[in-house]
Each structure stands twice: as C-alpha cells, then as structure tokens.
Design brief:
By secondary structure, the chain is mainly beta. The protein is built from 2 helices and 82 strands.
C-alpha cells in the first residue's frame, strides 16, 4: 500500500505510469496488478495519492524490496514526496496467517484436514467427520476426502465400510474382499484384514463370515467338517458342501479329488456291478459284455432261457441255428433256403444254400427234394421254387403235366406252355419245340397241330398251285388262299409281300388307291425322307415330291408351308436374288413410292421435290434453288432466271415478286432492285432505271421524287426558291414557314432567320426580315 503527495501540477496518471514501469520491469508482471487508486486534495498545492498493488503469488514477495527502492529513487527524481511506504501480504486460498493477526505476521499453508477457498485473511476451515486432505494448503472443500475405512454415501457423508469390504487409501470407494476371503468387521482399512478361507474351500467376493466359504470342486464336507478329497470312484463338478457323485454301474474311476467327471466305461468283456467302482472285473467263460456294462451275458453262439439269471446256464446253439447278439435267450434258425451242420454258430453267414433240386422253408429243419418232373435253383425256400421241367407246366394241384399238341415249353419253369407261333405246328404232347412249315411263303395259324394246317402266309396269295408275294401297292393280312388287296387312299406299300399298308406320313397323301409311295402336300417338299414345310419366301402349289420354289420378284411369303406367294403392297418391293427367298417385302426408301408388285429397288420412284441418289439408293431432297415437280428418279432442275426456291424439297419455283429480280439459274432467293432502279412486274430478270431526280428507296416496285423535288407529270422538277420538300415521295413543295427563308432551288429544308428576327412565309433571302 503506497501513499504519496504530488504537486498540484502533477497528475495521478504520471504517478501511475511510474509504478507500472517499475513493477513490469522488476517483476515481469502485468498492469492488472493495480487493485485500487484514489486521490484527495488536502491543499491548494498538493494532492494526496493512495495506490494499492496486489502481488498474486507468494513467490514474488522477494521482489517487494527491490520495487520499494526503485520506486523511491524514481519519485525523488520526479520531485514526488512518498509520505508512506507500507507492505503487507494478504493470504490467498489454501493459506492463513500464522499467530495473531498483525502487520508482521506471515501466511502459512492450511494443515492437513483443513482447507480455505477464499483469498483473504480468514482462517482455514476443518474438514468434516472421517475426512482428511491429501496434502497441506488445500483450497476447496472437495479436497476433503474420506479416510481409510470410510467412504462417501449418496448424501456426501463419510460412513464406515461394511462387512466383507475394506478401504486402504484416502478418497477411494470401499472394495469387496477378494474371492477366497471374508471379513466380519466394519471400517476395515487393509486387505490383510480379509481372512483366508480354510484349505480346499473358497468364497465369493465380499463374503462376511467363514460359513460363506464352500468346498472346492472335487472336495466335500460332511456335518461342518473340513473339506476332504472325493475318494476313488467319485467326483464333484461344482463347489459347495454337496456330497461327491458316485460313478454309475458299468463305470469306474482311479482318480481322487476329481473336479471333472473322470468315470470311464468298463471295456468290452469286463463289468462293474456296483457304484463307486475303482476297477472292472473280467467276464466268466462263454460270456461277454459290451463297453460300460454292469453285468455279463451269454456271448454270441450261446443262449440262456429267459427265466435263468445265472450266466453259467449258457448253452450252445445247435445245427441250423445261430445267435449273433450278446445275451440271447434263444437261437435263430437259418433263413429259408439255407442250412448248416455247425454248433456254437454266431453268424448267419455260417448258413449255406440248399443245393439245386432241393428247398427249405422257414418251418423246415433241413433241405427237402423237389417233386417229380421238377427242379429248383440253389437256396430255394419253397416247393413253389421247384419248377417244372421243359415240356411240362404246373397244374392247380402243383403237379407238373406234359404240354398238349399245338403247345410247347422249351425251358424249365412254372410258366404255362406256349402256343406254337404262326408258321409252325406240333403234333406231340410234352414237346419242347414246334416244327416250322416248309417254304418261306407258307405259314400256319397259332397252335397248329398238323402239317396240313400250313397254307399261303400273310403277304402272299395263291397263284395256281404256288404262293406268290403281293406286289407293291397291295397287301394281305391273313394266312390262307385269299387274294391281295390294293392299298386305300392316303396309304401305301412300297415293298412286295406286304401284310398291311402304311398310312402316309404327316403332310403327305396319295393321288389314287394302290399307291407305292406318298406325295408331299401343297406347301411341303420332300427333304431327308419326310415332307418339310416350304420355308418363308418359298411356295409349292401342287401335290408332288418336288422342291419348293422361290417367290418371284415383286412377291413374298411370310409364313411356312405356303402354296402361293402374295404381291408386295404399294411402296415396297422384293427381289428373289437371295437363295433363301423373300419372306417379306422391303420398304421403298424414304420419300419414294412404288406400285403393287414392285420387283426391284429401281421400281421405287422418288416423290416430287426429291431426286434419286445412286450411291446409296436413297431419295434426297432437292437443294435450295432446284425443284422437281413429278414422281420419278430423274434429277432436280435448277430454277430458271426470274424465279427461286428458298427451301430444300421444292416441287416448283416461285417467281420473283415486283421490286425483286434474279438474273441467274438455280437461285435460292431474289435480289432487291437498287435505290436508283425499280421493277413493277413479277418474274423479272433485271430492274429498270428510275428517271432523273427520282429514287426507289421507299419501294423498289416504283420510283418517286427525291427530297427537294416535286412531281410534274411523269418527271420531277426542283422546288423553287422560298419553297422546300423534306421527304422522298410525290408530295408538293411547301413554302418556307415564317422565321425561315429559302435562297436555293431543290431545297430539302429552309434556313432559319437571324437571332431576334422574323420573316414571312416563302421568304427567299436572309435580308427580308423584321426585328
């Protein structure tokens, strides 16, 4: 706190500048250190000035002495008397005065457990119950943290850590005692105060008593005793005081204190009949077991009665029987058609087939011989497998009887006797074959019993005493002496000795009875032995086996099997130059037409206004300046002189309008007559010159008088002096208006009088005026 007296002529800002320079130079401080500035006027000549400077950091206090010395020296030079120079520190946040508050006391840091947030001389405040600070000089209540063994609740108060928890450091939350420990006390300040569970037991995190400790997996406890290992033949998968689980019947375990299921199934041929087994026993003679069995049973090939419970009662299977299952109570017979002479058989593969000529059913105990005139194949299972010999067939009584005359049977079997086919006969009973009729042209009916039944066969007719083949186009379906018949319409026979006529194939027919071949219908041709439809662009108008023909020029067929071609419609054409024919007519080029049945592109004629282009066979629009007024393929003609065609595709030329002319052929526009010429007729090839003193600038169709000239008959005369004519045209000359004059002929305007003078209308000189 500085107090000084300055002269009336000095200002507070002068003193303030001195302070600012000194403090910034010595303390590397900023101007915001000035906290207060005041002044008073005690006398007419002096001003008392009071200045307070704040040093914000305790570490800057050593600068104060240097500040004071430099300030005094500067004030002396400025003739400013320093009345009072006082230094007194204000304690900041986290600090308080030591001892009794006076000018010589110093600031010290708040002790642990206290804090101060204000930057004044007040005392530090104590933290709440069960709270402390981590270091001296705390500046906020939030620096007060709960002490070990205590933690903050939702209201911000520090409360004791509960059972099963602890807290070792300042400010942290309570932690649960880890798994395998417990704690029954409160306000515990160390992990070491969590008690360890007894041997072979564990607890969940946060356990509060020893009773919370449970036996580990593989260990058990009975009636509150210590945890002991599960014995051989048992295991325990989970923690707790539960009893150990015993291995099932048929399993064993050689491991103690097992926390996993270590029970192993007894191997095949061994067993364990009780729970908690630590080993398996070997099965007695003639017995065996499957893997994991609790007892032994009769092995395959042996059996015991269903009422017996003693494995020593196992008996061997006899001849023709077997048992393939463990513990069988009976033996199985060999399948029908099989038998064996072994004992103790354990597989159906020991059963072998009954030999040929014998059979065995499910109910038979041995193989039995087949009846007379019959036999069987290997492994027959029934008397019905015994089949009659060749020449014999089975009756309803299962007796094999001989085939009668007209029938035969060439193979052994139970099939019935067969009738002798056509062309054969049989006169004997029990026959294995039939005798053929003599001659290739002779045959007989089915089941013939005598050679006298042989006659002309089908396809042959009796001719005198001999049988002859039916000629092509005829047929005969029966055996006998009947004559051959001609084939009906739409059928044919192409070979001799035909027994029937064939129907004509699809899309073919015959022209009469007795045909030897068929002909393709109209619209079809013979191709690879069958009638195929004429493809599009072809036709056939007659029934024959000839080829389809191409449609002629100017015609087409757009579908298959056509019997004729259609003419191309107008504005289209066709040409049969392609070997594939014409299935559709081509459209004439754009802007051309043709008559019905056009057979060539050149028969398409360009419309009026278009000419034929031979390079790409197109009709091109007549260019501007040319025309064509008819349909045809001739070129376009140029417009003659005096006419024009402004747009392409012209069918006529237009004559030049009056006032216009054209002196060249093939023009697309006309030219306007010059200002000194005119034309009052259409179709002109040149313009006429205007007479003297005239122009056609207003209308090229006629000439009118120039400015300064007026009409006089067929000519134009100049306006006299004192008159004028300002426009081009046939108007009369006018008198110069008052205030003007005209001193020249052929004038287009009048001249103004001198300033402040006047003249009458029609004045001819500047000298005629009135002021």
């Amino acid at each position: 706190h500085y107090q000084a007296t300055v002269r009336q002529g000095e200002t507070q800002s002068d003193l303030l500048a001195i302070f600012r320079e000194i403090l910034i130079a010595l303390g590397d401080l900023s101007a915001n250190m000035f906290k207060d500035w005041s002044s008073s006027l005690p006398s007419p000549h002096h001003v008392n000035v009071s200045l307070v400077v704040v040093v914000p950091r305790y570490s800057l206090l050593p600068y104060i002495a240097r500040v004071n010395a430099s300030l005094q020296e500067q004030l002396d030079r400025e003739n400013i008397s320093l009345v009072t120079l006082v230094h007194r520190e204000t304690c900041g946040s986290g600090r308080q005065r030591e001892g009794v508050e006076n000018s010589s006391s110093v600031c010290v840091e708040c002790p642990t457990g206290f804090y101060k947030s204000s930057a004044d001389d007040s005392s530090c405040l104590s933290c709440g119950p069960y709270q402390n600070t981590s270091e001296r000089g705390s500046r906020a209540s939030t620096d007060c943290l709960c002490v070990p063994g205590f933690a903050s609740n939702t209201s911000g108060d520090c409360v004791a850590c509960g059972q099963g928890t602890f807290k070792q450091s300042l400010g942290s939350a309570c932690s649960a005692c880890p798994a395998g420990t417990y704690n029954s006390e409160t306000s515990v300040t160390s992990l070491s105060q969590c008690q360890t569970c007894p041997l072979n037991s564990f607890s969940l995190p946060g356990s509060i008593q020893m009773e919370d400790c449970s036996c580990n997996a593989g260990y058990t406890s009975l009636a509150g005793q210590n945890c002991t290992a599960c014995p051989l033949g048992t295991y325990k998968l989970v923690s707790g005081s539960q009893a150990c689980t015993a291995c099932e019947v048929g399993k064993y375990s050689e491991v103690s204190a097992s926390a996993t299921n270590t029970c192993i199934a007894c191997a095949a041929g061994t067993f364990s009949a009780s729970f908690r087994a630590s080993a398996c026993s070997q099965c007695p003679n003639d017995t065996s077991s499957l893997q994991g069995s609790g007892q032994c049973s009769c092995r395959p090939g042996f059996y015991t009665s269903s009422s017996s419970t003693n494995v020593s009662d196992c008996l061997p299977c006899g001849q023709g029987r077997y048992s393939e299952q463990l513990g069988s109570t009976f033996c199985v017979k060999c399948f029908a058609g099989k038998f064996h002479t072994l004992t103790n058989s354990s597989s159906p593969s020991d059963c072998v087939a009954c030999p040929a000529g014998k059979y065995k059913s499910e109910s038979d105990t041995e193989c039995i011989a087949c009846p007379a005139n019959s036999t069987s194949s290997d492994a027959s299972v029934s008397v019905y497998n015994c089949t009659c010999a060749a020449g014999y067939s089975r009756s309803d009584s299962q007796t094999c009887l001989p085939c009668p005359a007209g029938l035969f049977k060439s193979l052994a079997g139970n099939a019935p006797c067969l009738v002798c086919p056509e062309g054969t006969y049989n006169e004997l009973v029990g026959s294995t074959f039939c005798t053929a009729c003599a001659g290739s042209d002779v045959s007989s009916l089915l089941a013939s019993t005598s050679v006298s039944n042989c006659s002309c066969k089908a396809g042959f007719e009796l001719n005198g005493t001999a049988c002859t083949a039916c000629p092509p186009g005829t047929f005969k379906t029966t055996i006998g002496t009947d004559s051959c018949s001609p084939c009906a319409n739409s059928s044919y026979s192409s070979q001799s000795s035909s027994t029937t006529c064939l129907s004509c194939p699809l899309h073919s027919t015959t022209l009469a009875e007795g045909a030897t071949d068929c002909l393709c219908d109209v619209g079809y041709e013979l191709s690879h032995g069958s009638c195929s439809p004429c493809i599009a662009g072809h036709f056939k108008e007659h029934v024959s086996n000839g080829a389809c023909e191409l449609c002629a020029n100017g015609s087409f067929s757009n579908h298959s099997a056509a019997s004729s071609c259609e003419l191309c419609p107008a504005d289209s054409f066709s040409s049969s130059s392609s070997i594939h024919g014409v299935s559709t007519c081509s459209q004439c080029p754009q802007h051309s037409v043709s008559d019905v049945g056009a057979g060539d592109l050149l028969e398409c004629h360009c419309l009026a206004g278009y000419s034929f282009n031979g390079s790409d066979f197109s009709c091109r629009m007549c260019e501007a300046g040319k025309f064509k007024n008819n349909t045809g393929n001739e070129p376009c003609s140029p417009c003659p002189q005096g006419s024009f065609a402004s747009a392409p595709g012209a069918t006529t030329c237009r004559s030049c309008d009056p006032g216009l002319y054209q002196d060249a052929d093939g023009a697309s526009s006309c030219m306007e007559c010059s200002n000194s010429s005119y034309m009052n007729a259409s179709g002109a090839v040149s313009c006429l010159p205007c007479p003297d003193n005239m122009t056609s600038i207003l209308d090229p169709r006629s000439c009118v008088c120039l400015k300064g000239f007026s009409p006089a008959g067929l000519s134009c005369l100049p306006c006299g002096i004192g008159t004028y004519k300002a426009n081009v045209g046939d108007d009369e000359c006018l008198l110069c208006p008052p205030g003007t004059y005209g001193d020249e002929v052929a004038a287009a305007s009048c001249k103004s009088c001198k300033l402040h003078s006047q003249s009458p209308a029609g004045s001819t000189s500047a000298e005629v005026y009135t002021c």
